[in-house]
Write a structure and sequence with these properties.
Blueprint: H1 9-17, H2 22-35, H3 41-54, H4 63-73, H5 78-84, H6 93-108, H7 116-139, H8 146-195
Protein backbone atom coordinates (compact mmCIF):
# COMPACT_ATOMS: atom_id res chain seq x y z
CA UNK A 1 0.00 0.00 0.00
CA UNK A 2 2.80 2.41 0.93
CA UNK A 3 5.36 1.10 -1.55
CA UNK A 4 6.91 3.67 -3.88
CA UNK A 5 5.48 3.38 -7.36
CA UNK A 6 8.27 2.61 -9.85
CA UNK A 7 8.92 5.26 -12.49
CA UNK A 8 8.12 4.52 -16.11
CA UNK A 9 10.77 4.70 -18.82
CA UNK A 10 9.19 7.91 -20.12
CA UNK A 11 9.45 9.49 -16.65
CA UNK A 12 13.11 8.47 -16.35
CA UNK A 13 13.83 9.94 -19.80
CA UNK A 14 12.00 13.14 -18.84
CA UNK A 15 14.06 13.41 -15.63
CA UNK A 16 17.26 13.23 -17.67
CA UNK A 17 16.16 16.27 -19.67
CA UNK A 18 14.61 18.18 -16.76
CA UNK A 19 14.81 16.56 -13.31
CA UNK A 20 11.86 16.71 -10.98
CA UNK A 21 12.45 19.71 -8.74
CA UNK A 22 14.60 21.43 -11.39
CA UNK A 23 18.30 21.48 -12.18
CA UNK A 24 19.15 23.56 -9.08
CA UNK A 25 17.80 20.87 -6.78
CA UNK A 26 19.56 18.17 -8.82
CA UNK A 27 22.85 20.08 -8.51
CA UNK A 28 22.37 20.48 -4.76
CA UNK A 29 21.72 16.75 -4.41
CA UNK A 30 24.84 15.90 -6.45
CA UNK A 31 26.89 18.28 -4.28
CA UNK A 32 25.49 16.66 -1.14
CA UNK A 33 26.41 13.18 -2.38
CA UNK A 34 29.85 14.37 -3.47
CA UNK A 35 30.75 15.76 -0.04
CA UNK A 36 29.68 12.54 1.68
CA UNK A 37 31.79 10.19 -0.43
CA UNK A 38 34.02 8.07 1.87
CA UNK A 39 37.37 8.84 0.25
CA UNK A 40 40.28 11.25 0.41
CA UNK A 41 39.47 14.77 -0.92
CA UNK A 42 42.22 14.68 -3.54
CA UNK A 43 40.92 11.36 -4.93
CA UNK A 44 37.38 12.73 -5.08
CA UNK A 45 38.72 15.85 -6.81
CA UNK A 46 40.50 13.73 -9.41
CA UNK A 47 37.32 11.78 -10.02
CA UNK A 48 35.25 14.92 -10.57
CA UNK A 49 37.96 16.27 -12.87
CA UNK A 50 37.87 13.06 -14.93
CA UNK A 51 34.09 13.32 -15.32
CA UNK A 52 34.27 16.99 -16.28
CA UNK A 53 36.96 16.33 -18.89
CA UNK A 54 35.04 13.43 -20.41
CA UNK A 55 31.98 15.68 -20.78
CA UNK A 56 33.92 17.69 -23.39
CA UNK A 57 34.50 14.68 -25.66
CA UNK A 58 32.25 13.59 -28.54
CA UNK A 59 31.97 10.08 -27.03
CA UNK A 60 28.24 10.36 -26.35
CA UNK A 61 26.90 7.22 -24.71
CA UNK A 62 30.34 6.47 -23.26
CA UNK A 63 30.76 9.45 -20.94
CA UNK A 64 29.99 7.48 -17.77
CA UNK A 65 32.19 4.50 -18.64
CA UNK A 66 34.94 6.77 -19.96
CA UNK A 67 34.82 8.92 -16.83
CA UNK A 68 35.20 5.90 -14.57
CA UNK A 69 38.05 4.50 -16.67
CA UNK A 70 39.89 7.83 -16.66
CA UNK A 71 39.34 8.23 -12.90
CA UNK A 72 40.76 4.75 -12.31
CA UNK A 73 43.79 5.55 -14.50
CA UNK A 74 44.66 8.74 -12.58
CA UNK A 75 43.88 7.37 -9.12
CA UNK A 76 40.57 9.17 -8.69
CA UNK A 77 37.30 8.13 -7.10
CA UNK A 78 35.17 6.44 -9.77
CA UNK A 79 31.83 7.33 -8.18
CA UNK A 80 32.94 10.98 -8.07
CA UNK A 81 33.71 10.74 -11.78
CA UNK A 82 30.10 9.73 -12.43
CA UNK A 83 28.94 12.84 -10.58
CA UNK A 84 31.51 14.93 -12.44
CA UNK A 85 30.25 13.68 -15.80
CA UNK A 86 26.98 15.52 -15.15
CA UNK A 87 28.87 18.66 -16.16
CA UNK A 88 27.66 17.52 -19.57
CA UNK A 89 23.87 17.62 -19.29
CA UNK A 90 21.04 18.60 -21.65
CA UNK A 91 21.47 22.26 -20.64
CA UNK A 92 25.25 22.48 -21.13
CA UNK A 93 25.87 19.98 -23.94
CA UNK A 94 24.77 22.34 -26.76
CA UNK A 95 27.15 25.01 -25.40
CA UNK A 96 29.98 22.49 -25.00
CA UNK A 97 29.37 21.08 -28.49
CA UNK A 98 29.37 24.44 -30.26
CA UNK A 99 32.42 25.67 -28.32
CA UNK A 100 34.47 22.49 -28.80
CA UNK A 101 33.55 21.99 -32.43
CA UNK A 102 34.08 25.64 -33.31
CA UNK A 103 37.50 25.69 -31.68
CA UNK A 104 38.49 22.37 -33.26
CA UNK A 105 37.42 23.43 -36.74
CA UNK A 106 39.37 26.67 -36.36
CA UNK A 107 42.47 24.73 -35.26
CA UNK A 108 42.19 22.18 -38.08
CA UNK A 109 40.93 24.53 -40.80
CA UNK A 110 37.65 22.64 -41.29
CA UNK A 111 34.44 24.38 -42.33
CA UNK A 112 30.82 23.45 -41.64
CA UNK A 113 27.57 24.50 -39.98
CA UNK A 114 27.77 25.45 -36.32
CA UNK A 115 24.03 25.18 -35.64
CA UNK A 116 23.42 22.78 -32.71
CA UNK A 117 20.64 21.04 -34.66
CA UNK A 118 23.02 20.38 -37.58
CA UNK A 119 25.70 19.04 -35.23
CA UNK A 120 23.38 16.58 -33.51
CA UNK A 121 21.82 15.54 -36.83
CA UNK A 122 25.34 14.66 -38.03
CA UNK A 123 25.75 12.46 -34.93
CA UNK A 124 22.40 10.81 -35.64
CA UNK A 125 23.21 10.22 -39.31
CA UNK A 126 26.57 8.67 -38.41
CA UNK A 127 24.83 6.45 -35.85
CA UNK A 128 22.29 5.28 -38.42
CA UNK A 129 25.01 4.41 -40.90
CA UNK A 130 27.01 2.62 -38.22
CA UNK A 131 23.94 0.54 -37.34
CA UNK A 132 23.37 -0.16 -41.04
CA UNK A 133 26.93 -1.42 -41.44
CA UNK A 134 26.66 -3.59 -38.34
CA UNK A 135 23.58 -5.29 -39.80
CA UNK A 136 25.30 -5.61 -43.18
CA UNK A 137 27.55 -8.29 -41.70
CA UNK A 138 24.49 -10.51 -41.18
CA UNK A 139 21.96 -9.77 -43.94
CA UNK A 140 24.23 -9.25 -46.94
CA UNK A 141 23.43 -5.58 -47.52
CA UNK A 142 26.20 -3.33 -48.83
CA UNK A 143 28.09 -1.39 -46.16
CA UNK A 144 28.21 2.38 -46.59
CA UNK A 145 30.95 4.65 -45.26
CA UNK A 146 30.38 8.05 -46.87
CA UNK A 147 28.47 9.69 -43.99
CA UNK A 148 30.79 8.15 -41.39
CA UNK A 149 33.89 9.43 -43.21
CA UNK A 150 32.36 12.90 -43.53
CA UNK A 151 31.32 12.82 -39.87
CA UNK A 152 34.80 11.83 -38.69
CA UNK A 153 36.44 14.58 -40.76
CA UNK A 154 34.05 17.48 -40.08
CA UNK A 155 32.54 16.67 -36.67
CA UNK A 156 34.20 13.99 -34.55
CA UNK A 157 37.89 14.87 -34.97
CA UNK A 158 37.40 18.67 -34.66
CA UNK A 159 35.14 18.14 -31.63
CA UNK A 160 37.73 15.86 -30.00
CA UNK A 161 40.63 18.27 -30.67
CA UNK A 162 38.68 21.39 -29.77
CA UNK A 163 37.22 19.93 -26.58
CA UNK A 164 40.61 19.06 -25.11
CA UNK A 165 41.55 22.61 -24.08
CA UNK A 166 38.21 23.67 -22.54
CA UNK A 167 37.86 20.20 -21.01
CA UNK A 168 41.22 20.43 -19.26
CA UNK A 169 40.37 23.91 -17.97
CA UNK A 170 37.04 22.64 -16.64
CA UNK A 171 38.75 19.60 -15.08
CA UNK A 172 41.31 21.76 -13.26
CA UNK A 173 38.63 24.21 -12.10
CA UNK A 174 36.34 21.48 -10.76
CA UNK A 175 39.24 19.72 -9.07
CA UNK A 176 40.32 22.84 -7.19
CA UNK A 177 36.71 23.60 -6.22
CA UNK A 178 36.01 20.06 -5.05
CA UNK A 179 39.05 19.38 -2.84
CA UNK A 180 38.53 22.25 -0.33
CA UNK A 181 34.77 21.63 -0.30
CA UNK A 182 35.18 17.96 0.61
CA UNK A 183 38.03 18.73 3.03
CA UNK A 184 35.87 21.27 4.88
CA UNK A 185 32.98 18.80 5.11
CA UNK A 186 35.26 16.06 6.46
CA UNK A 187 36.76 18.47 9.01
CA UNK A 188 33.31 19.55 10.23
CA UNK A 189 32.19 15.94 10.45
CA UNK A 190 35.30 14.95 12.46
CA UNK A 191 34.78 17.88 14.84
CA UNK A 192 31.13 16.96 15.29
CA UNK A 193 32.04 13.37 16.10
CA UNK A 194 34.72 14.53 18.54
CA UNK A 195 32.16 16.61 20.43
CA UNK A 196 29.69 13.75 20.59
CA UNK A 197 29.53 12.33 24.13
CA UNK A 198 30.71 8.72 24.50
CA UNK A 199 28.04 6.05 24.93
CA UNK A 200 27.08 5.03 28.46
CA UNK A 201 29.50 2.62 30.03
CA UNK A 202 32.37 3.62 27.77
Amino acid sequence: MFKRKPRSYSQMASDMVYPRGGWLRAAQYALHRLRRLPDQPHRIGRGVAAGALMSFTPLFGLHLVGSMALAWAIGGNMLASVIGSFVGNPVTIPIIAVTSLGLGRWMLGVEGSMAPAAIFEAFAAAGRQLAHNALAAFDGRVAEWDRLAHFMETIFLPYLVGGLGPGLLAAVAFHYMTVPLVSAYHARRAARLARKPPPDGA
